Amino acid sequence: MAIIQTRKLTKTFGKIQAVRGIDLYIEKGEIFGLLGPNGAGKTTTIGMLCTTVRPTSGRGIIAGFDIARQPTQVRRNVGIVFQDPTLDTILTGRENLQLHARLYGLPSSVRKVWIDQMLELVDLRGRADDLTKTYSGGMRRRLELARGLLHRPAVLFLDEPTLGLDPQTRARTWEYIRKMATKEQTTVMLTTHYMEEAQAVCDRIGIIDAGQIIALDTPANLIDSLGGDLVEVCAPRLPLEAITALPYVSSVKLNGQVMEISMKSAHLHLAELLSVIPDVVSVQMRKPTLNDVFIKLTGRDIREDAAQNNGGWVEAAAKYNQRGR
Amino acid sequence: MGISAVWWREFKVFWREKSRILASFVQPMMWLFLFGSGVGASLSVDGINYRDYIYPGILTMSVIFGSVFFGLYVIWDRKLDVLKAVLVAPVTRISIFFGKVLGGCTDVIMQVAILFIFSFLFPSVNPWGIPQALIILMVSSIALVSVGLSLGSLMESLEGFQVISAFVVFPLFFLSGALFPVDERLPRWLASLVKFNPLSYTVDGVRGALLGISNAPFYINLAVVTLFAAIMLAIGCVLFSRMK
User: Fold this and answer.
1) Is the dihedral of CA B181, B187, B190, B196 positive or negative?
2) Residue A105 with chain B: CB contacts under 8 Å
3) How confident is the model over B165-199, as pLDDT tens digits?
4) For B73, nearest residue in chain A (alpha carbons)
5) Given CB 3.0 to 4.6 Å as the disulfide criterion, which of A134, B24, B161, B197 pairs with B111?
6) pTM of the entire structure?
């Protein structure tokens, strides 16, 4: 059963087409990653799906409700964790959840129990009654995750959930996300700049560029689409025709004296490949990653984008720290 | 649903910041005792000691400053993304707006209540008039929190704060007759400015209730202030709904 379904979802801001006809079909319980360079339309797409941005055209259905015509029902069924922190720092962790419970109309009979359960899930019970301005970055993120899930939404949107956290905290945050997705049977749609993490956590990945989905599959299939393993050979003369004639070579790319060869089962065929290339200087073999898929499809390295984006985050963090009225 | 949630939040915050409650009480007391007693030493109005005479005006002042600045705080909330999580909740913008208005109104009325506790220090004040005074102050507070929220939803940064303070808050206060009687002795230009300030009717209403001297009957004063509140609520609803 599809929990998120869109048809030709489009958003234009003046003359700029931010999102150009996106079709998605996401099943219940799936963890779906939306990856793309900065300005590709990720945040706008998520904005439309959680009804904060009005689509210019096209349709979107979430948990059976139309995003344009039934925004209130859609909102009740989605949870959101924003890229920038949005906790109320004058309130304690528990009070933040209480405010959320009230805003989402949770009956007072279940409020206390659900809040305790969520605090337990993100290991914040011991600090629940401290003001959130005393929390560390990782704790704030966890509390935001707990808040996003408190009203038991069908879909949880996570916009860069681990941006700006240290590697250890990032790993733990993903652990929580996976745990919650399994336990609550929540569908998760996320954006991230960390390719290895997306590869590890997502069931399927959509790559978005210039407002369009340009690839959509499981991480394993996306990587397989590159045509197997990557072998980099450095040699003074590279016989292009002889190499491409080999049946297991799927594609080659030449950068000066270095040739990048995509081939199936490199561990079996490497010796034969090297036998057709004279005077080999060096050889390197590796398994391709999602980042290679990303570079091939968008022509950009997502890590360059991440570096830019981090500047923005530092600003947001600085802003966040001087919070409090 | 949205109204009570936002109201609850504002109340929690108010309760947490007890120093603000104290500050909001000290300032009017200084006006009454340091300014009022000073001027009162050589001046009385209609046979009432000046310090007692400005008691209704200072109550109104507390409402003006407290309400408008409460509303303007929404700029701060927006700047810090505190509102972002609230704005994606399944509640209407208008209910969030009303929650804020009620929150601000509660805030201000609590401050006023503290000042009422000390009304026994002002011999000319009739304590039986307090409920009536409270009603008109509450309606005024609703109007002024709406003014603050409206201005706040239009402003992008806190830099406009000083401008609002200089061109909205202080004129509203000085031109309300809070510190002087509004009668034929006033220069004509000043009298007409005072007449067009809706808060003049608040001051007159409170003065009538507590001191028994007023220009207009209470129901007229209350009607003017209620109309003002209705208009400001309507404007606030529209602006708050459009806010980015």
Assistant:
1) positive
2) 1, 90
3) 889 999 999 999 999 999 889 999 999 999 999 99
4) A325
5) B24
6) 0.84
